[in-house]
Design brief:
Blueprint: E1 3-9, H1 22-36, E2 39-46, H2 56-66, E3 72-74, H3 85-96, E4 102-104, E5 109-111, H4 114-147, E6 159-162, E7 167-170, H5 175-187, H6 192-202, H7 220-227, E8 235-238, E9 241-244, H8 253-266, E10 283-285, E11 292-298, E12 304-310, E13 324-325, H9 326-338, H10 344-391, H11 397-419, H12 421-448, H13 451-461, E14 462-468, E15 471-476, H14 480-492, H15 510-532, H16 539-554
Parallel strand pairs: 1-2, 1-3, 3-4, 10-14
Antiparallel strand pairs: 4-5, 6-7, 8-9, 11-12, 12-13, 14-15
Helix pairs in contact: 3-4, 5-6, 5-16, 10-11, 10-12, 10-15, 11-12, 12-13, 12-15, 12-16, 13-16, 14-15
Length: 555
């Protein structure tokens, strides 16, 4: 009597959801075998798609057929055996070698005859055609949805699917937490691992809970993926192609670009940072260029000291730089911060001046809006022409995708400018206010801050930090460089640091112009910087971080 093996397969893919389950297949096939008096040797089951080769149970089945353990196979339909040409060819070749005598289904049996093998090839081909058509339909549907501004599947953390309207909405529980994570990154005071620690331990952030997964803390790799996902500024990038999303963005394009620069810098290996070693990884040795590290020493009386010194790891360089105690180092940092410090009264005047100029700029900005609108229309027209060129075969696939990505990115940038044209200047004024507010607070915040806060302030305000002969050289970052220059000029000229006419927004006479001109120039320089560098670091996150930390310690 022929030895028959039952093979039942249930795919996990969507196109097979209407096929009988494995239990139902086995029950039906066993009843069929009993009616036809077929000898069932074993029952093999598998839950895997047959769209591509590599099914373990299927491969084991035909290995046993080659060894002569079975004469035939009983399946519900031929497409349960194969839906790809490799597995379909293996079935027919087993018949050609007379290793497989027959394949039985409840509808008909296929024997080793020319007609039956022809119909087997035809059914395998139809199964493959069904898979290909279904794949094309799914891809077409996904692309159509992308072009409408929506993604298929689950959105990133902070967003939810709206099953009623079939859109993507904000997750009321996680959206504000993810936005706070972006703020910490953009503030420049926290590394991604530290942000993950804060979000997990202090805020209790966990992923969405599903039936079989989720509800767990975010992993480090997932956090980096989150910070590199264009979805959060409204972009959808699929297979290198850009689409403009219609969901509510969490951040701006400028903030996203700035975050990528921060992540690029943070990939450089840095020494481990402990609270007591607040400035490691920020300074370079002025003699050999190696990094400056720190270590803790204890004298014979039990008193502990923290010293900073060159690592002296430059090959072939015998560095002779001495050590410097942390207290001496911090006195120099405080002296530097004094050079970028202004009084609260001067801060209030500078903010008032920036706001007054904002009113004038808002009127002029209308012309810029018209120009941006024209560039946006031209960009949309170029996209339309690009499609025509591709349809006429004048562009390759790579040329089309690259040019389309470039135009879509530019269109997204212009759209952001159009949507926030009135708010662009207002945002610039807020950035100016942050700078002047920071300049009025930085020195005191450093003096009273924790080691982490002091590190954040130094990292945010200074660049190119070099230590040579126990002297720390710091270059202030723009726009604080403008503040330092103005303060220095005022001291050199021995002019009143706070002229009595600061209350005036415009000069009234020549006696007033001289002492005020440098401060007007300062406000103009800071405004111009933020107009030309809208994605520069924000001081707001740093001030909010230091203030909130100080309040938490007070409580």
């Amino acid at each position: 009597m022929p030895r028959i093996a039952i093979y039942a397969r249930k795919s996990t893919e969507s196109e097979d959801r209407q096929i009988l389950s494995i239990d139902s297949q086995i029950r039906e096939l066993q009843q069929f075998a009993a009616r036809e008096r077929l000898s069932i040797v074993c029952v093999l089951t598998e839950s895997k798609s047959a769209k591509s080769p590599g099914r373990p149970v299927f491969n084991d089945l035909f290995a046993r057929i080659q060894r002569g353990e079975f004469d035939g196979v009983l399946v519900w339909k031929l497409d349960r055996l194969a839906r790809n040409p490799v597995d379909g060819g293996a079935v027919i070749w087993a018949m050609e070698e007379r290793k497989l005598a027959a394949i039985h289904t409840p509808h008909r049996s296929f024997l080793n005859t020319g007609n039956d093998k022809f119909w087997m090839q035809l059914e395998f081909g139809m199964a493959k055609k069904y898979v290909d058509d279904l794949s094309d339909n799914v891809k077409r549907g996904i692309r159509a949805k992308l072009e409408r501004g929506w993604i298929s599947g689950l959105p990133p953390l902070g967003y939810l699917n709206d099953p009623v309207n079939r859109t993507i909405v904000k997750d009321p529980e996680r959206f504000p937490l993810v936005r706070r994570m972006w703020d910490l990154l953009l503030g420049g005071a926290h590394t991604p691992p530290r942000i993950l620690q804060i979000a997990t331990r202090e805020w209790g952030l966990v992923t969405r809970q599903f039936k079989r997964r989720g509800g767990k803390p975010l992993t480090r790799s997932a956090l980096y993926g989150l910070f590199q996902n264009p979805f959060y500024y409204g972009g959808l990038v699929i297979n290198g192609e850009f689409f403009q999303g219609k969901h509510a963005p969490m951040i701006s394009l400028a903030e996203f670009n700035h975050a990528q620069r921060i992540l690029g810098n943070s990939t450089n290996p840095r020494p481990s940072i402990r609270p007591s070693f607040a400035y490691t990884g920020l300074m370079k040795c002025g003699e050999c260029g190696a990094s400056v590290t720190a270590e803790q020493k204890r004298n014979r009386y039990g008193r502990e000291y923290v010293y900073y010194h060159c690592t002296k790891r430059k090959a072939g360089v015998a560095c002779t730089q001495p050590v410097i105690e942390v207290k001496s180092l911090e006195r120099q940092i405080e002296a530097f911060l004094q050079t970028v410090t202004i009084s609260p009264r001067l801060r209030d005047w500078a903010i008032g001046r920036a706001r007054a100029l904002n009113e004038e700029e808002a009127q002029k900005d209308r012309a810029a809006f018209d120009g941006t609108a024209k560039r946006y229309a031209a960009c949309a027209r170029q996209l339309s022409e690009l499609v025509d060129l591709r349809l006429r075969g004048l562009l390759t696939d790579d040329e089309y995708v690259n040019k389309k990505r470039e135009l879509e990115t530019e269109r997204a940038r212009l759209r952001e400018l159009l949507h926030d044209n009135d708010g662009r200047v207002t945002a610039m004024v807020k950035r100016c206010e942050e700078v002047f507010d920071f300049a009025a607070q930085a020195s005191n915040a450093f003096r009273t801050g924790s080691p982490e806060e002091r590190r954040a302030i130094l990292r945010f305000t200074g660049s190119n930090l070099t230590l040579r002969d126990k002297i720390l050289t710091i270059e202030p970052q723009k726009p604080l460089l403008f503040v330092q220059r103005t303060v220095k000029t005022a001291k050199q000229e021995k002019s009143p640091f706070e002229p009595a006419h600061l209350r005036l927004a415009e000069p009234k006479n020549t006696r007033v112009v001289a002492p005020l001109s440098k401060w007007w120039a300062l406000v103009d320089d800071v405004r111009t910087f933020f107009l030309t560098h809208p994605s520069s670091p924000s001081f707001q996150g740093l001030l909010r971080q230091t203030n909130s930390t100080r309040c938490a310690r007070a409580v």
